Amino acid sequence: MSTVTDLGDRISMIDLFDMGAPERTGGYVLHEEELTIIETSASPSIPYLLKGLERLDIQPEDITYIIVTHIHLDHAGGVGVLLEHCPNAKVVVHPRGARHIADPSKLIQGARMVYGEDFDRLFDPILPVPEDRIISLEDGDQLKLSDDRVLTFYDTPGHAKHHYSIHDSLSNGIFTGDTIGVRYAQLNDEMEFILPSTSPNHFDPEAMLDSLKRIKDLDVSRIFFGHFGASEHPNDVYRQINYFLPIFMERGHRVEGEYADRSPEERAEILYDLLMECVASHLKERRVSTDHHVYQILEVDMKVCAQGIVDYLEKSKSKQ
């Protein structure tokens, strides 16, 4: 099974069934002389990606570039496995992420701490990327894919320090990974719903808002999310992140103050409940059923978001 969507502007999106779920993580194919994939998801997603390429009548050996917005495993964990099928491809990655895809041991260690016993099911195997197949581009660097398509890479921290957002000249769109949130395509029939992604261990709310402003200043027409799909309403995306991020942080500070005697793990559990309460209230006001399948994804995401906020506040205390 593989779902491929034509997004126009010579862009196809392949549903990578990350975590076994549809409409969770998308891989984007840019149909150019320099054939390019943006995002691979984790290794269990690679069969879906390869099947999608087959449906597009693309041979893996014809891929020139595999670009990852950042090196979190749900975006880049499968790149080593994919490379085994793409002998002529190079991997484009943020300079801060290059050494970690060449030697993923720290990535694996960090993800095991977050995902625990679910790690193997979600991410295994994670293969190293040979250093001679890695390209690191700096802020503002460009990659020409054809006469009318140039990609420009922007350093956009906040979700992670090793994060690019990638402007596409042909569509005037931008591939934002997780920098300005997660788009819950499961709700497309009801609304377009975006929440910030505040996962550990590089989350920084001020940097996230700075990156959002930088993207907004580019005056893009479309936003291509790692999770999931394209938004035709950039200003509404910015509005939702600017609305929810302060609420998330207010809940985090509240837990930090009221439960200072609890462990970080306990505070994250308490904060998770508050975040879910906030999100559920917002969706209820918009008449989204409490048994909507989007809650299965939201429960996972809000646990990780709570961990990231608690981690950020712990680090902030140690700097004082």
Map the helices and strands.
Elements: E1 4-6, E2 11-15, E3 26-30, E4 36-38, H1 46-55, E5 65-67, H2 73-76, H3 79-83, E6 90-93, H4 98-102, H5 105-115, H6 119-123, E7 134-136, E8 142-146, E9 149-155, E10 164-168, E11 173-177, E12 182-183, E13 194-195, H7 205-217, E14 222-225, E15 229-231, H8 234-258, H9 264-285, H10 294-319
Parallel strand pairs: 4-5, 5-6, 6-7, 11-14
Antiparallel strand pairs: 1-2, 2-3, 3-4, 8-9, 9-10, 10-11, 12-13, 14-15
Helix pairs in contact: 7-8, 8-9, 8-10, 9-10
Give an account of the 3D structure:
This protein is α/β, with parallel strands linked by helices. Helices cover 39% and strands 18% of the residues. The chain has 10 helices and 15 strands. It has a 7-stranded mixed beta sheet, covered by helices on one side. Strands 8-9-10-11-14-15 form a 6-stranded mixed beta sheet, with no helix packed on it. Strands 12-13 form a two-stranded antiparallel ribbon. Helix 8 (234-258) crosses helix 9 (264-285). The mean pLDDT is 95.
